[in-house]
Amino acid sequence: MRTLFVDHHADLTRAVGVALGDSGFAVDIVRTLEQASSAFSCASYEVLLLELALPDGNGLDWLKQLRSEGHSVPALVLSDVDDLEKRIAIFNGGADDFLLKPVCTNELIARMRAVLRRSAQMTDPFIVFGNLHFDPIGRQVSVAGHPLTVARRELCILEHLLNRAGRIVPRSQLEDHLYSFNDEVSANALEVGIYRLRGYLSRSGATPRIKTVRGIGYILECD
């Protein structure tokens, strides 16, 4: 799940970025609202982490502008503001949750999953394709009722293909979804991930299959 983290505190963003990466999130870290707007213009995000006091403006004003433009991405505000009236203003300004600094990364990840779960409840929170069942919030996969353990990177590929099952997913779209701006990605990283994911599916007896559409991308089909 691709995440935009807007905060200018280097130590915090470094620690949180590592923890989120280990939990299956692809994280883009920016320091200013100008950089955040640029990131939103060229990438699609599943969740937003936002500090309020930023070098070039107020994060809450920027969030209000996002909401007025129709962006519904779940947003968690991180702040050292411990005042009831200000917290109410944060929620009224479009935040889905609030976490007081200094943050505990385990609590932050749990809250991120909670807001994603609430967002998913507007539709079916689970994805079923053939005999494969995927819980995008709990990050759990099963095949014909049997749990299947999939490595983090391949799980992200599977999720994106499942969300577009039966349709061609361009290679560039997959790469944009899987990797943050700062990831060092080898030329064949996606091919390696697809190869490994095919192995998981084949060995588990899953009916969905990944087909390569030469020169374009991939499509998840079902036997």
Automatic annotation (TrEMBL):
PANTHER family: REGULATOR OF RPOS (PTHR48111), TRANSCRIPTIONAL REGULATORY PROTEIN CUTR (PTHR48111:SF36). It comes from the Bacteria. Residues 2-116 form the Response regulatory domain. GO terms for biological process: regulation of DNA-templated transcription. Residues 124-222 form the OmpR/PhoB-type domain. GO terms for cellular component: cytosol; protein-DNA complex. SMART domains: REC, Trans_reg_C. It comes from Mesorhizobium delmotii. This is Putative transcriptional regulatory protein y4xI. Residues 124-222 bind DNA. GO terms for molecular function: phosphorelay response regulator activity; transcription cis-regulatory region binding.
